From TrEMBL:
PANTHER family: FATTY-ACID AMIDE HYDROLASE, FATTY-ACID AMIDE HYDROLASE 2
Gene3D superfamilies: Amidase signature (AS) domain
UniProt keyword terms in alphabetical order: Hydrolase
Pfam families per record: Amidase
Gene Ontology terms, MF aspect: amidase activity
Organism superkingdom: Bacteria
Domain Amidase: 25-465
Enzyme class at the top of the EC tree: hydrolase
Protein name: Amidase
GO cellular component: endomembrane system
EC number(s) per entry: 3.5.1.4
Amino acid sequence: MVETEFQTAEEQASALRAGDVSSVELTDEAIARIERDDQAINAICVPDFDRARAAARDADQARARGEDRALLGIPVTVKESYDVSGLPTTWGMPAHRDFEPAEDAVQVSRLKAAGAVVLGKTNVPLGLQDIQTFNEIYGTTNNPWDHTRTSGGSSGGSAAALASGFGALSIGSDLAGSLRTPAHFCGIYAHKPTLGLAATRGMVAPPGPPLPVDLDLAVVGPMARSAGDLTLLLDVMAGPDPLTHGKAYGVKLPPARHERLGDFRVLVIDDHPLIPTGSAVRAGVNRVADALVDGGARVERHSPLLPDLTEAGTLYMQFLFSGSVARFPVEAYEQLRTRAAALSADDQSLDATRLRGMVLSHRDWIEATNRRELHRHSWRQLFAEFDAVVCPITPTPAFPHDHNPDVLVRRIDIDGAKSPYFDQLVWAGLATMPGLPATAVPTGRSPEGLPVGVQLIGPMYEDRTPLRLAELLEQNLGGFQPPQ
C-alpha cells in the first residue's frame, strides 16, 4: 500500500470513497508511524489505539452500507485539553493526572458524528499557559524540524503531530495564538475562528464541569496540512452549543468575498510599535506580498484605517492577563495588587500593562471593553476597503526550549536583540482582542531551515474569506512540506 501519512484529509476521503484504501489501513499506518517516530517528538501524550481501530472498522462497515459523512474513516488527533470520555483530561496539571470526564466535549462529539477516527490526544503546556509545550506529566514536545526547539503552544502537540504525519487533522484552541503559533513554528495550517463561531463546551480545565459558557477571548479551531482541510474541519466544528444558542438558531457562514486571487484587496503589515520583527519573519511576509502582487491582487502596505497597534496590544494584554489570574488564591492576588500599586505612573511597558491587567477592577474592565468595541468598529471600516490583513504571528521562527520557571525573566532573541518573552504575543492579540478570524499559512523556510508562517486576518464571521485566500496562496507558495 502506498504510504498516506502526509496526504490531506480531502485526499484520504477521496481514496476512501473510491475504495482505494480502507479506514483500517489508514488507521494502522498512522498508528505504526506514531509508534515508530513519536518517541523523538512526543506529540501524542494519550494514545487511544484500540478504540481507534474499532472506530475504523465501524467506519469501513458504514461505508459498505452506503454511508458517506464529512470525515468518515479519517484518522485525527485531539488536543489534550478536550474532554474525551474514557481518557484523562489534565491540562498538564499533576494534581489532575487521574481526572477522567464522563462525556465527550461537544467538538469531540462532532468529530465522531462526522465519522472521524480519534487516534488519541496531543500534548499541551501546564494549564495551556505557555508558548511552548511541556508539563510534568507528559514531558516536552519537540519541533519536528529541530528537536532542540519548541513546537509552540498551547496546541504544540497537535501541530507537531500533523507535521510528523500522525493523522490528517487535529483540533486545538486559541487564546494567545495557541493555534496559529504552533502552526507557524511547525509549518502547517490552522484557523482561529471568529469568536463564538464554534462551541467550546468540554474544553475546560479539570475538574470543572463542561458548562456551555461564552468565553471572552478563547476559541476552538481546526489544524491541518492544507488550507482546504481547514475549511472541511471548520464546517464540522462551526455552530452554537445545542444546549444554549443552538436551541434558537444555526450558523450559515457567508461565502468568501472572492474566488480569484486577483480580486482580493489586502493590507500587508510587518512592523509593530511594541516589538521588532525578525528578518526571517519579515521575509515570510514579503513572500506572501510578492505572491499576492504576482496574482494580481491589490496590495497596500499602509492604511489610516488600521486600528492603533499600540492600544490594540495594550488592550489585549489587559484582557488576557486579567483572565489568567481570575482563579488565583486570595493571597497571591493581594501580592499582585501590591506590586501593581508600586508601579510608576510613567511605566507604560508591556510588563507593567500585564501586571495592571492582572488586578484590573470591574470599572476598568468595562472601560477596556468599551475601547475594544471602538476597535471592532475600526476593523469594520477597514474591511470595507480591504478583504484581509497579512501580518506576522510571532516575531521569530521556533525558538529553543526555555523551561525557566520564572517566565518573567525569559527572553526571546530577535536578530540578536532580547525582548521580554510575553511581548511576542502582541501579533496574535491583533486578531484575538476584537474576535476576528485568522488563518495561519506556511510561507517557506528561514535561512536556518525552520518553517515560517504568517496570519491572514479576515472580517468577523467571514471566516471563508481568509480561508479561501489561504487556499489560493497555497497554490503559489507550495504549502506544507514534510520535515527534512
